[in-house]
UniProtKB/TrEMBL annotation:
It comes from Emiliania huxleyi (strain CCMP1516). It comes from the Eukaryota. InterPro entries: Glyco_trans_8, Glycosyltrans_8_dom-fam, Nucleotide-diphossugar_trans. Belongs to the glycosyltransferase 8 family. This is Glycosyltransferase, family 8. One of its GO terms (cellular component) is Golgi apparatus.
Length: 411
C-alpha cells in the first residue's frame, strides 16, 4: 500500500521536481462549490506544489477573470476547461453530471502524452497529504503493469455495495453478454471474487491504459451494462428521454476488481456525507459515523477526506463540515480560489438533493402526526368537556352528594 497518513504531517518545504504529478477532477454546476477548497488543499498539502498540475473539467467555460486569477495565484499549474461530451462515445446524450463522472475513462486522451499517470479526485474531497509523493510511488516494480490504484473497501461494505450487481451478474448466461470474452482473460467467478473499491480517489496508469487500449474495453462494456440494467449501483432516470446514466464505479469494478494496486486506506476516508435513508432511524447513522471516526482517529489521520453520500460539505448542514471542511474553504477563499471558481457559477440548492427531500418529507410527516395527536388529546380532554361539560358536571355533582350522604349515614 502506498502513501501513508504521515505524509501530510511532514514539513512542506519546496523541493526539486521528480516528474510532474497530474491530478484530474470533474465537476458539474452543483459541485463547483467544492473546486476551490479541493484544489487549494491539493497544493497546500504538498511539499512541491510547483510540481503538480491540476486538470479541472467542468460544466461551462471559465470567465476571463477566472483565467487571469489562475495566472495570478501561481501556486501550481491549473488547467480549467469545459468537457466536450460529444467528442467521446460514452459521454454522448448524457447529462453534464453523468458525462463528467465518466470523463475519467478518457484521461489517456485528455491529458498530454507525456503524462504517465494521473490521480482522479472527486469534487467532494479535501486532500490532506502529498499527492506528488503518492504518485511518485505508484506503478513501479511489481505494480508497474497495474492499470489503476485505489483503496479497497472493507469486506462488509463490499457485500453492501456489490450485492445488487452480483445478483444481476448471476443472471447472465455467459461473460460474453458483458463483452468480457475469453480474449480478455476474465471469468465471472473471478470477477465476483474481486475486491470492491470506491472510485472517488483513483490513480490511473496512463501508459498501461494506452498500451492495452483499456478505454475501448470500457466503451464496449458500458453499453452492455446498460442493456442489462446493471450500469450503476442505484438506478438513475434522466429527463428528456436521455439514456440511463451509467456509473464509473461498476465498469471499473468489473474490469479491475482483481487487478489494482492497493492504496493506504487513509487515501479515501469516506462516509462523511452520511445521509439518512428511508429504512434507517434518522439520527443514529450520523451519530454512529461520528463516534466511529472519533474512536478510530481515521479523520485526524486521513490523507483524503471524502464526503460520500447525499449531504455534501458545502450544503450548510453537514455534521463533519465545520471541523474538517470549513477551514479548507476559508483558506481557499483567502488564497483567491474563489476568483478561479466563483461561487456565482455554482448551482447548489437543497432542492437538488433527493435524499434531503425525502428526509424533509419524513420529518414533515412526523410533525403532522405529532401535531394532530396533540390536538386530538386536547379535544378529548378539554373539547369534550366543553361541549358536554354541563351534564357531566351535574352527574359528577350528584354522585358527590350521594357519597357525602352515605358517609353521614343519611338515606
Amino acid at each position: 500500500m502506498q502513501g501513508g497518513a504521515n505524509d501530510s504531517r511532514q514539513s512542506l518545504t519546496p523541493g526539486a521536481c521528480n516528474g510532474l504529478a497530474h491530478v484530474a477532477v470533474g465537476a458539474d454546476r452543483r459541485e463547483l462549490l467544492g473546486l476551490g477548497p479541493l484544489v487549494s488543499s491539493i497544493f497546500s498539502s504538498s511539499r512541491s506544489p510547483h510540481c503538480i498540475h491540476v486538470h479541472v473539467f467542468r460544466e461551462g467555460e471559465s470567465s476571463p477573470q477566472s483565467k487571469e486569477a489562475i495566472r495570478r495565484i501561481g501556486r501550481g499549474s491549473i488547467t480549467v476547461r469545459a468537457l466536450d461530451s460529444e467528442r467521446f462515445l460514452l459521454l454522448r446524450n448524457l447529462s453534464s453530471s453523468s458525462a463528467l463522472n465518466l470523463a475519467r475513462f478518457y484521461l489517456p486522451e485528455l491529458l498530454p502524452e507525456t503524462a504517465a499517470s494521473v490521480l482522479w479526485v472527486d469534487a467532494d474531497i479535501i486532500v490532506r497529504s502529498d499527492v506528488h509523493s503518492l504518485l511518485a510511488g505508484l506503478f513501479t516494480g511489481a505494480n508497474r503493469l497495474s492499470p489503476l490504484a485505489a483503496v479497497a473497501r472493507d469486506q462488509d461494505l463490499v457485500t453492501h455495495y456489490r450485492g445488487g450487481l452480483e445478483r444481476g451478474l448471476r443472471r447472465l448466461r455467459s461473460p460474453a453478454e458483458l463483452a468480457l470474452d475469453e480474449a480478455w482473460g476474465y471469468d465471472m467467478s473471478a470477477i465476483l471474487r474481486g475486491d470492491a473499491f470506491n472510485a472517488g480517489v483513483t490513480a490511473f496508469n496512463l501508459r498501461q491504459w494506452r498500451a492495452e487500449k483499456l478505454t475501448q474495453r470500457v466503451e464496449a462494456l458500458v453499453p452492455a451494462l446498460q442493456r442489462l440494467e446493471l450500469a450503476s449501483y442505484r438506478g438513475i432516470s434522466l429527463p428528456g428521454g436521455k439514456s440511463a446514466a451509467p456509473s464509473s464505479q461498476v465498469p471499473l469494478q468489473l474490469l479491475f476488481g482483481r487487478d489494482f494496486q492497493r492504496l493506504d486506506a487513509c487515501w479515501n476516508v469516506g462516509g462523511l456525507g452520511t445521509s439518512w435513508e428511508a429504512e434507517e432511524l434518522l439520527p443514529v447513522r450520523v451519530w454512529a459515523t461520528q463516534l466511529h471516526a472519533w474512536w478510530t482517529g481515521r479523520l485526524a489521520s486521513g490523507c483524503a477526506l471524502h464526503w460520500t453520500g447525499g449531504d455534501k460539505p458545502w450544503s450548510g448542514h453537514n455534521a463533519f463540515a465545520r471541523r474538517w471542511y470549513t477551514p479548507a474553504a476559508k483558506a481557499a477563499a483567502r488564497e483567491g480560489y474563489d476568483e478561479i471558481f466563483p461561487p456565482s457559477d455554482a448551482h447548489w440548492s437543497d432542492r437538488d438533493d433527493p435524499e434531503l427531500l425525502a428526509r424533509i418529507g419524513i420529518l414533515a410527516a412526523l410533525v403532522v402526526v405529532v401535531t394532530c395527536g396533540a390536538f386530538f388529546c386536547r379535544w378529548a380532554a378539554g373539547g369534550c368537556s366543553r361541549s358536554f361539560g354541563y351534564p357531566w358536571r351535574r352527574l359528577a355533582a350528584r354522585e358527590s352528594q350521594v357519597d357525602e350522604r352515605e358517609s353521614k349515614g343519611e338515606p
